[in-house]
Design brief:
The chain is globular and about 50 Å long. It is an alpha/beta fold and about 230 residues long. It is built from 7 helices and 11 strands. The chain folds into 2 domains: about 120 residues, 2-Layer Sandwich (Nucleotidyltransferase, domain 5); about 80 residues, Nucleotidyltransferase, domain 5.
Length: about 230
């Protein structure tokens, strides 16, 4: 399978080109230069592989949750390239892309990504028989205390813990037992490519016009109402 994956949802910008068993990847840490970097990075991996967009089967992208602007960049670039080259697209959960980085495949995986505003994006995953993660519960945005309470209700002994939420909110580490911790893990296009390959084989690729971001927060901006003038 020939697939391009990209992600700009966090402070990391990454692309991955999958050509059957060959992977060519690029990953750059950047706070806000995603829009400037992503297209040159895509051109670079295509040139290294000696291939073109029109020779691909699909384009995958990190569909969130993540930074509002970052998620919009990824979906916009994926849609633009897909429309131009008549390719389907596959949106992959950024939380799943982090879970796929777990060093151990045994046990439940808890992903908590810093969502700012004293909240985290979080969900639980486990590895399936194909060595790719599947979600155990719906993705949510909650305060750290709510995550701890939810995990307590489950009554689980310990989890594999990944995500920047554990670094931003130390209470999560103190309140949730874990067997493994990676508090700097960010989503990467490499894992997005792996998960997208499975979704493509399952027939889950869609027309680029149907691509949808996932923000989790209903209100992504706050507007101060103007005072009423009588």
């Amino acid at each position: 399978m020939k697939l391009l994956a990209l992600d700009t949802a966090t402070e990391q910008c990454s692309v991955a080109l999958m050509l059957d068993d060959v992977r060519i990847t690029r990953c750059v840490q950047t706070p806000r230069a995603h829009a400037d970097l992503i297209l040159p990075m895509i051109q670079e991996v295509l040139a290294e592989a000696g291939t073109t967009m029109k020779q691909l089967d699909a384009i995958a992208f990190g569909r969130g949750p993540g930074a509002f602007t970052g998620v919009r960049i990824a979906i916009g670039v994926a849609q633009g390239l897909a429309f131009a080259c008549d390719l389907p697209v596959i949106g992959i959960s950024n939380l799943a892309a982090v879970a796929q980085q777990a060093a151990s495949t045994a046990g439940d995986i808890l992903i908590c990504m810093d969502a700012r505003m004293n909240e985290v994006y979080w969900a639980r995953f486990k590895f399936a028989e194909d060595a790719l993660v599947i979600a155990i519960n719906d993705e949510r945005v909650s305060g750290p205390d709510q995550v701890i309470a939810a995990m307590s209700e489950i009554g689980q002994d310990a989890v594999i813990a990944l995500g920047t939420g554990f670094k931003a909110y130390p209470a999560l580490c103190a309140g949730i037992k874990h067997t493994e911790l990676n508090d700097s893990a960010l989503p990467r296009a490499n894992e997005i490519a792996s998960l997208a390959q499975r979704d493509f084989r399952l027939g889950l690729a869609v027309d680029p016009a149907a691509a949808q971001p996932v923000y989790l927060r209903d209100q992504v901006t706050h507007v101060t109402p103007k005072p009423h003038v009588s």
